[in-house]
Amino acid sequence: DWAAALAVPSAKLHLYGKREARRGRKMGHITIVAATLQQARDDAARVAAALGMQAPE
User: Fold this and answer.
1) Residue among 7, 44, 31, 18 at smallest CA distance from 55
2) I want to staple 48 with a disulfide (CB 3.0 to 4.6 A). Which of 21, 35, 41, 55 is the partner?
3) Could you state, in order of their start, the residue ranges of all structural domains in the chain?
């Protein structure tokens, strides 16, 4: 759910402007900037969960 992921205030989406998606091709990334490392990790976990992914440990 992209809307839920981008509703996290510290999350910023960066798209690379590629027109065509292919398997294994990076189309962009999300950056998390927060006041503390723990807050950044928590926000990253929220974004990952919203996108159906598991946040890295």
Assistant:
1) 44
2) 55
3) 2-18+26-50
